[in-house]
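Batch job 17 of 40 flagged for manual review because the log was empty.
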Amino acid sequence: MMTVVWQIVRALASIIVLFFLIYQALNELQARGGPPADPDQYECHPGPGDPADLPRPSRPPVVKVIRLTDTGELVRRCEWTDALYELTKVEQEKIVLLYVHGWRHNGDEADDDRKKFTELIDRLTTIEMATDRPRHVVGIFVGWNATSQVDVWDHFTFWRRKQAADRISQSAIVTKLIGAIGNIKRMRANARDRFFILGHSFGARIVYSATAQLLLYEAEQAYPPPGERLYREIRGPSDVIILLNPALEAAVYSPVNSLRRNRKEGDYKEAFSPKQEPLLVTIATTDDWAMRYAFPMGQRIGAARDDKELTALGYFDDYITHALGENSNAGDSTGSVADWTERFCIAHVCLTRLDQSRFNPFLVVKTADILRGHNGIWKREFVDWLVGFLEVFDRRISTRTLEGRGELVSSP
């Protein structure tokens, strides 16, 4: 009897070891299969396809791709130059949308995420072209090696791609890119320029790592003086940052969540300005198997034990501030202050506050029906809501700019 048991144990052990060796080998092949870094990370040298020689503005829809290696180096330095030239060499007012993709995608032209992002840029361009003063819409797609391009094996790459995302974050290359775009916007000083950031899955993790410290720094700079409770308006590195199904443990978000600290009776120690615009909007679906099951498993393998370390941000109920869902009876919001951070509806899809931290610009949103699955971020209902959200955001900023200049008289 013991001999049979021992044979079974040996067989199971052999299977586990074999799987581990195959897993390591395939992950190593994936890491090596990504494009190498450009030997020159400092400048784009003249040659075929030199960004300095390309006509500007580029033909719409304009999507500039910047590819990164697993260590955060540029695959082609000229891609970086081309994207920034599109912003500096075109005088037309601009809307810039930066997107960092997530798990099971890359920067290839055939990648479905890149195609869907291009469709979004095309839609925003069409909207702008129908206005009296159309702005130049520029999409910047940050690509990295987050897929094995083998569908079955892709499901086993989750944890290794998380490590790659963290190495990219540690390089600070995305922070550098955000800073470059923000500086161009600042130097242009055009009130109609906009800069929005999107991140999905591990791309959202990269975006959060690139911006969270900047946001917290600005929040502390706006902290109320002694004897007062109201924050001054907090400014971020872009007009708004949106994270979709972020592969991010709740523990990492704790410093941001602490900004809404309150006493047991619910009387918040500090309050946000009624004029405060959203800065960081996290949206997560309830049917994301990768965040619900694979993420906690990977965290536990990595020796995490605390609930906040084991649980993805979108599944940590204590940090949820809003719900996003369909409401057939709801009309579109007017963009008033109350609608904006407390309840906001577009195309019968409503964002509704659940907590009591009014005007808090850091939103963690849970949805059951507007996003579908981990990679279902391009669902039509959500894209319609997202486009409406960005449109109203744009109008609100424009209105407030005119009010600040005294060029608009607000209704009583």
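Reviewer: the log was empty due to a logging misconfiguration, but the result itself is present. The longest strand covers residues 136-143. Unflagging and moving on to job 18.
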